[in-house]
Amino acid sequence: MSDRINDMAVHAKYPHVFSPLRVGHTTVKNRILMGSMHTGLEDVDNAADRLSAYFVERARGGVGMIITGGIGPHPTAGHGAKLLDDNGAAMHREVTDAVHAAAPDVKIVMQILHTGPLAGTPDCVAPSPVKSRIGRHAPNELTEEGIEEQIAAFANCARLAKQAGYDGIEIIGSAGYLISTFLVEKTNLRSDRWGGSWENRMRFPVEVVRRVRQAVGPDFIFVFRISAMDMLQGGLAWDEVVSLAKALEAEGVDVISTHFCWHESFVPTIATMVPRAAFAGVTGRLRKELSIPVITSNRINMPDVAEEVLARGDADLVSMARPMLADAELVNKAFEGREDEINTCIGCNQACLDHTFTGRMTTCLVNARACRETELNFPPVATPKSIAVVGAGPAGLAFATLAAQRGHKVTLFDAGSEVGGQFNLAKRIPGKEEFYETLRYFAKMIEITGVDLRLDTRVDADLLRGFDEIVIATGIEPRKPPLEGIDHPKAVSYIDVIAGRATVGTKVAIMGAGGIGFDVAELITHQGTSAALDIEVFAREWGIDFANHPRGGVTGIEPQVARNSREVTLLQRKTTPVGQGLGKTTGWTHRLTLQRRGVRMVSGVDYVRIDDAGLHATVGGEPVLFDVDTVIVCAGQEPARSLHDALAGTGIASHLIGGALEAGELDAKRAIRQASELAAVL
Ligand code: FAD
Ligand code: NAP
Ligand code: SF4
User: Where does ligand 1 bind, in terms of residues with CB under 6 Å?
Assistant: First the structure.
């Protein structure tokens, strides 16, 4: 029986967040845990020091509990790291010792992950040979002996985790990984005692839990992660979710963690377009059915959101995973009333999940130091320099604040009246409201690091005389293709459209289908409240039924996406499918949203001219007239380097970062990373 949230309030502003909780045999000091994320550090040989530094920083940052990235229990578990024998436990021991030494009151729990049909290897296994939509291979059907071997492997891995010094384990039984495929009818076609009826389908997780508990004994935290809503047609019914959770509780699980996806589902569950804490209410319903604590998660990125969720009684613990990449000190900052210093996770996935799913090391767009704690540091400088930074976009902001934090005397100039550069356009796009948080963060950091900010100041070479170092972060100029009629009144720049300075007609062609072309299409077809700010709108747009909870939580009927009456065509010259270059884990959501709004997407376009009739082009060699009122030019960008070139002409050296250095494939991730790397060495 858990100590439910009670009257042990210790904190005036976040009484629920900062009250301890009894979990199994022990107590967790507060209600925020760092959720499991596979960073890639687990998979690097001899990287215990890097992994330790990464976790130690988060442990010192105040979380009550850390759950590691997934560790495989069996050779078939997937590409990632595995813990199969005593030799493997040694590396883990280094990590657990480091965390316990740095923060003895923080629990570190190892996640056991068997990816089953998503393992990506020909020897992958599952209850039945049903290939996942996103799997590389059809899985091999497990025999009875094979099932027994897998159960024994989970128990062995848990035992080794205990031996390696962890405080507990989490088993992931969701997301389309091995355990969840036993539960769902369409991936479990068996007719033996492991398939068919619900009792048979849940036998595998129940048996795993029983054997794991026997292996680790009572004094070891045991978290089990279930899909409380798998976002899958034909997924689990609500009564099955409840009965599974109760059965796991009866077998000795200490905490039920709720997850809200199968990776193959067509509903975004953690992207920035998902409202904050959208799924917590589902956890709340499950919590009423159980007597052990429950964890909720998904888009809970600030302490006030966590506090609200806990105060509503939706959960006993809140999992914040990506927010801990963005800011390792989030919990301490909340405790000390320094929330405005939190570098908020904006849910972009650009440097975390997009990296994970493309085999690259995880880091964070807003915090380039994440997962690079041993190599990217900002120690105080012995000899402060006077540094001029021109441009207060993401690159200039990141450089200026980090350099000032090191002790340099930094002056930051921008021609505009507010900091943020292009982020001031990005924040206006429905679904990108989180970008305001990054601007708030940098504004606060400017204040506390003592950067001398000079807005409304267009800098020329003369103004930069006398500084020890000059950093040019002047960003980009929108590309103006050399096309006949490009200055016709029908042709407008994306900047004027997003800033609200241009009139947009009812029939529109968007020239260029990169990230900005997609954002502009979103903006001009949008109607009503942003789904990111309203759970009901979000549910309607993605076909989720939170109230009735049909199987999987999804209605299966065509989602209703509000749209205005504009006819929009999104064009590109490439012959590849439109939107192919968008983010790995979020691109599909943008493509689907625009398709549902009726946006036409045309590739293989050669532009000819713009005139009173519209946009003339050829598509596949055939002449086509796009009969439109407005052509919005989103044709990429060129570096804004005139200041740099003028300085070079006078013999003054400067450093170039962000878009000013290279506009091709520029994004804020690269801009902030370059800025951080320069600030670390200057
Ligand atoms: P900028 O942001 O362009 O900043 C340059 C600054 O320099 C400006 O503030 C400008 O006023 C100032 N400046 C220029 N010349 C002078 C001068 N002579 N004197 C003084 N000041 C000067 N990126 C992502 O990673 N993810 C996204 O989801 C994303 N969405 C976007 C959505 C939109 C609508 C837009 C427009 C961009 C988006 N981007 C996104 C791109 C991202 O904003 C840019 O990559 C990033 O802003 C580049 O940073 P920067 O600091 O190099 O340049
Ligand atoms: P982009 O992604 O490079 O796209 C530019 C588009 O313009 C492409 O469709 C390109 O495709 C077209 N184009 C290039 N040269 C052209 C020319 N001469 N004439 C006509 N069309 C031309 O750049 P962007 O959309 O401007 O975005 C800038 C950066 O911001 C991107 O690199 C992106 O990473 C970032 N961003 C990211 C997001 C996000 O959600 N992650 C959102 C917005 C912006 P064709 O050559 O095939 O026509
Ligand atoms: Fe959050 Fe984006 Fe950083 Fe990932 S990369 S942790 S989503 S801010």
Answer: 348, 350, 390-396, 413-416, 421-423, 425-426, 429, 458-459, 473-476, 498, 515-516, 519, 640, 643, 658-659, 666-669, 671
